[in-house]
Amino acid sequence: MTKSNQTIQDTVKLIADGAMSCTELTESCNSKIASTESEIGAWAHHNPELALQQAAQLDQDKSQKPLHGIPVGLKDIFDSADYPTEHGSIIHKRRRPEKDCAVIEQLKAAGSVIMGKTVTTEFAFFNPSRTCNPLNTRYSPGGSSSGSAAAVAAGHVPVAVGSQTNGSVIRPASFCGVYGFKPSRGLISRSGVLETSTTLDHVGLFARNLDDIASVTDALSAHDPADNASYAQPRPSIVNHLRELDLQQPNSPASIVWIDMPYSDRYSDDANSAFESLTTKLKDSITRIAAPDEFTAYLDAHKVIYDYEIVRALDNEISNHWLDISETARPIFAAARHRTETEYLQALKVRDSAIDWFSKFNQQYDAILTPSAVAEAPLMGSTGDPVCCTIWTLCGLPCITLPLLQGKTDMPIGVQLVGALKSDHLLIGHARQLLADLKNTT
Fold first, then answer.
1. Residue 389, CA distances (Å) to 174, 188, 240, 373 in order
2. What's the DSSP call for residue 145?
3. Model confidence, pTM
4. 424-433 pLDDT, tens digit each
5. Active-site position among 75, 108, 117, 182
6. Superfamily assignment of 246-441 in CATH?
7. How far apart are CA 91 and CA 178, in angstroms?
8. Can you tell me the distance from the alpha carbon of 269 to that of 99, in angstroms, rounded to the nearest whole number?
9. Which of 168, 189, 215, 326 is catalytic?
10. For this structure, is 285 an active site residue?
């Protein structure tokens, strides 16, 4: 396996120079999975031989691809022609799609080795999965992208793909102490991915460093007419933006805002203490404001939209396989079916007003600094509280979590930065600058 601080770009160069082969890298990942998977349970489907076949083919391919030979895991809601895609549910046991989803097509075109499918919670929803947190197996990795976060944290793969409809990328990344990125809605295609909410579903990434987030996002960022959220506007390269920033050092500090959120009473004492210390270090570049009253309505709107859309997206499962749905999900789905179209349409209007509010807000500030989760990872049996992600997901804003803080249990607490819609390259640049600023203050 590569070193923890070695980037994808470093690895691709080593492979191109003949210092490492795709097969050697894949064998290392297979070995790591074999040594710890029984404790962690990150993988729904992993085929070591199939992974090695892909690697051997890439070793024969001398073209320079951006992710050449890089092993990747994908949450088990992404359709794959090579692996089952079961959506974390016994209803879809042994389901075999006929073709790859758009994300897997792009990963293969970029030279990735598809290592397999990582564990998801049932329908990427709330019922906890079997996956344990690699940092301490007594604790939850979060959800719903539990296996993707755990696979990266355990060193099984350098990068994994997940999804977020509320807090399912940012929160698991926070709990597992890795980098997590939920791009702007529409940046990465959702074609061939389990739909639970057409308004709220996003594709996201987990990695060991910011540069890898940039590399994989660039490889996956493309307009897809088959996805109604995908947009045809230009997508500035994040990798190139980071290179430009490096050449421009020193850079002027970003304008960052801390918002006193209506749910701040849910923050743990450790989270409060950690963020007080952090904001003190950054006091010269942070403005603190109170959340407007509308934020509570934004939280409610997300709940209504999610309820209304998920029971329609899963109508077949709910109508025909009710007893095969978990006892955790059944009462939530039963209540959600009572949402009216009037409620739903009003919630969509609230969402529109929230997007408009942040469009104006982002003209004043570069990024919002906020906790990635209300606390460290809970014990197994819970996926944790997603509230720190809800409003940003509602609005489709890009979010990055950085593994910077720690609680009294020695488990991580992520630091989340939220940027302007469709300005993902700028957000990752601000995250790079924040990391540099913190390094200079220690």
1. 11, 19, 28, 8
2. S
3. 0.97
4. 999 999 999 9
5. 75
6. Amidase signature (AS) domain (3.90.1300.10)
7. 31
8. 48
9. 168
10. no
